[in-house]
Design goal:
Helix content is 40%, strand content 10%. With 419 residues, it is of the alpha/beta class. The radius of gyration is 20 Å and the shape is globular.
Length: 419
């Protein structure tokens, strides 16, 4: 059941870890109150974030002067979510309180998650956060995260802010990061993670049974839904359908063996004339730990950093027609499957991210007419299946270009909130 103090429906915007790594001069979250005010103006009533729970409550590190900034050396400077421009120093607990106080002032609910086993520590100035995460036994990581999230809710309660929390996720996209370390690898990781995730949820619920606690999955794992945790009190999925974007990923080996990267073809079809050769391009020599703290491979970063965005958009548009029907069907089917399992478990359903996929920062495929219609269709499906919460698009956030498309966001958020 949805607690009565929370909105009947959540129109969410995805602020991930950007809300604390991008606080420097001229960055999107330099002024938290302004960011919240703009979100409310666009029709949002909920924000989903990495609340850095492990760092703040289980790492044992001093976070009163947490140094954050770019990966370094221009690496990933044109990659969505990674394009941090300014170094900054924050008192992390104080900044967390500032965030939740601002959310409370603007009457915005917060979905609390963690990206710490995927990306967040890569933006720290030193490896201490990453090393503290790595030191946790893989079998215990989700339990420790559940306990850290419970500590976070306690901390908010001490300051009269616990009511701002809509639900808690032990971690973002549990099957797509370092939480799978040590698993046998014989079955889908969703299935193999079930006991670990149930332990994490149990650790949180033992202390805060009044707060909804949801697993969070990349995609909708339709072949492994039997692996959903049986003690979840909500479900969160990310229906990135990819389709034509999968062609880009596969044909250019963006997530494969770097030795398979087709340089000449990429030069002709995707890259700017001044792009270095992939074999000559490398992250800063001292950034090895930052790469381990992240999950995006070098070939994908290289193409996103050095692509000509017009070429990439044209590449996607030229091939979209062959995928259009399949992408539409997959989006509908995934949303239907997710809703069916939420109904089976009797819990609220949310779509925390989606809809096409991880496009280069300066591309506009998802922000353009095709992507915008996919957003409308996905929101309509979310409303049709009775989802408690959904997004306009992962790219509809202050750190992305879609934030400027006020009409699309207001239209979609009105659908979400009015049902």
């Amino acid at each position: 059941m949805i607690p009565t103090h929370l909105p009947e429906r959540l129109a969410m915007t995805l602020w991930d870890f950007s809300w604390y790594v991008r606080t420097g001069p001229g960055e999107p979250f330099e002024d938290l109150d302004a960011a919240f005010a703009r979100a409310v103006d666009l029709g949002y009533n909920a924000v989903r974030i990495c609340a850095m729970p492990f760092l703040l409550f289980k790492s044992g590190l001093d976070t009163t002067a947490l140094r954050l900034g770019p990966v370094g050396g221009g690496y990933a400077s044109r990659v969505r979510w990674y394009d941090v421009e300014q170094p900054t120093v924050i008192d992390a607990r104080a900044h967390l309180l500032d965030f939740f106080r601002a959310a409370d002032r603007h009457r915005v609910a917060v979905i609390v998650s963690s990206w710490e086993y995927q990306q967040s520590p890569a933006f720290a100035a030193d490896p201490a956060w990453h090393e503290a995460l790595e030191a946790i036994d893989p079998d215990q990581r989700l339990t420790v995260l559940g306990e850290a999230q419970a500590d976070l809710v306690d901390f908010l309660a001490e300051h009269g802010l616990a009511h701002t929390v809509a639900l808690v996720e032990p971690h973002n996209e549990v099957q797509a990061g370092h939480l799978t370390a040590g698993l046998p690898g014989a079955l889908d990781p969703v299935i193999e993670l079930q006991s670990r995730l149930e332990a994490g949820i149990a650790a949180f619920r033992a202390r805060h049974p009044e707060v909804l606690c949801a697993p969070n999955y990349a995609g909708v794992p339709v072949g492994a839904m039997r692996g959903l945790p049986r003690n979840a009190t909500a479900l969160v999925f990310h229906p990135y359908v990819y389709g034509v974007l999968d062609d880009l990923v596969q044909e250019f080996a963006l997530r494969g063996d770097p030795a398979d990267f087709p340089q000449e073809r990429a030069d002709a079809e995707l890259l700017r004339p001044e792009a270095p050769r992939f074999t000559d391009w490398a992250p800063p020599a001292d950034a090895g730990w930052k790469l381990r703290a992240s999950i995006v491979g070098r070939a994908e970063i290289y193409v996103h950093d050095w692509c000509d965005p017009v070429k990439v958009d044209r590449w996607l548009y030229e091939r979209y027609g062959a995928h259009r029907i399949a992408m539409a069907r997959e989006l509908r089917d995934w949303i239907d499957v997710a809703a069916d399992h939420a109904a089976r478990l009797g819990v609220p359903l949310l779509f925390g991210e989606g809809w096409v996929g991880y496009t280069p920062r300066d591309c506009r495929f998802e922000e353009g007419p095709v992507g915008a219609q996919i957003c409308r269709d996905a929101v309509a499906h979310s409303v049709r299946v009775g989802a408690w919460g959904s997004i306009v698009c992962s790219n509809a956030a202050p750190q992305h270009a879609m934030w400027a498309d006020a009409d699309l966001q207001r239209e979609c958020n009105a659908m979400l909130r009015e049902g």
